Prior knowledge:
Elements lengths: L4 H28 L9 H43 L4 H20 L4 H10 L5 H42 L7 H15 L11 H23 L52 H13 L6 H7 L13 E6 L6 E7 L2 E14 L5 E18 L7 E12 L8 E14 L2 E11 L6 E14 L1
Antiparallel strand pairs: 1-2, 1-8, 2-3, 3-4, 4-5, 5-6, 6-7, 7-8
Helix pairs in contact: 1-2, 1-7, 2-3, 2-4, 3-5, 4-5, 5-6, 6-7
Amino acid sequence: MKKETPFRLTGLLLMTCGLLLITCFELLRQTFNYPDVLRENTGSILEKIAQAGTPGQLMWYGMTLGSVGILFGVLLLHYCLVSFGVRYRVLITGLGLLAGLFNALGYLRWVFLVPALAASYVNPDADPATKEAVSVVFNAFHLYFGFSVGEHLGFLFLGAWGWLLSVALWPLTSFPRWLSWVGGISSAGTILGILEGAGWAAAAPVVEISASVLIVWITLLGGYLLRVKKPVDQAQLTVNNEPSPTASSTERGPDQRSFAADNNPRRNDATFGFYPTKKYLFLKTVFLLFALAPAVPVQAQSEGLLGKRKGPGFAKYEVGINGFRNPSVGLEFRRRRFSVHAGYYPTIISKNEQGKNVTTSFIRTGLSYWFLPIYAKKHEPSSFYVSASYVRGLDRDWKNDGGLLSEAGFRWVIWKGLNLRLGVAVLTSPGRAIKVNPTPGIGWSFFIR
């Protein structure tokens, strides 16, 4: 077996599970108003579960499979951490396994137990006593497996795993610094989700956005693991995963750090064997938690987010066909760092007479700015973006009414023109409450250099 194979298997599994979780979460949000539905009364939840039927069960089953897949991904990732020489890999792996287990247990109740309870609750022959008994059973499992196990322990251990893993990736040259930034910040936001149970209402939108970004981060981590080509030769490491003190720089191999050759605490030809001091870890940890941006955009324009340019820069022109709602179902044209877009934009921000969430349609047109490119060797760089758009409603209570949609996010160019996006959009309009939504997207672009 080639040395790269475990890295590729790990990357493929993490990417697959991440995409599965993203897809199922978005479908549940669109059709079931998840996770806001969890804050409604028991009768309303059970009625919506009964209306969702088999498609709803399949979505929850997908969330469960994604969490179980993360368990196996964490086990494979442990091998990668050994090769990278991460000292506290056992702690990272343990936290990851517990996070996957707690989340799987939390989602699993929606696959079999809750649909059965919902069917009994909406049964026309069910008397008030039966409905009350069903409500008691649902609330018991909802409080234990939902709030206690899934939302409290699940968020706590998922956030702790992501945060420690982000710190571990920081000194490794196989991974860009921005990956540690995104992972650390989204993990910290996910941990804050446990404060919702303590009465802090603001934790709800924070954890919804942070957990979504963290799943995207796991997917991106899988993509970078697929690209690892020179893992450490285990024969060159001692039992403690430290390079032999008598070995020369040429004997250490291409993926181990030579301290005598370079005192730079971050970069060398390879840094798999780099073990930071406690002071270094502390300073980086504080920096990772409280800083808001990984690099200065001006520097990124000339060198890129990863330092010296390693591939082609932004194409002079780009024509994009977007198939999902980021920025819209429509077309986009970019010249250098500025682009214009227009198309159909669906989102859930309205309710019907029965109080059920429904999709509201808009026409969206606006301008985007692209920055902090992450250069690839053979294709268009991935990058961050900000945009401002005018939206005009086509139906519901937004018909013929307009608003300003501000958005920030990241676009990942996967292969040739195929790209994925994830952003956070804020919709404002005079006389209306501010709406905040995650904005996933997928599209294909044609680049002209």
